[in-house]
Amino acid sequence: MKPDNEYRPWVVLMTVGSENQEVARYRRRGDAESHGQALNRLLSDRSFTVLFEQPQVSLR
Question: Does the structure show a pLDDT above 60 at 1?
């Protein structure tokens, strides 16, 4: 089992109406894009997007 705090910047989002729902997170861009493309083929009535989420840096 992987730790919860593992950094996964690539996010697959599903757009439903005007809302975005997170479907999955990946460490590698290629993995996220492949999953997004497969979901677009399987569920053509929904829209899936892959994006890179920058880490939040806290300055203390």
Answer: no
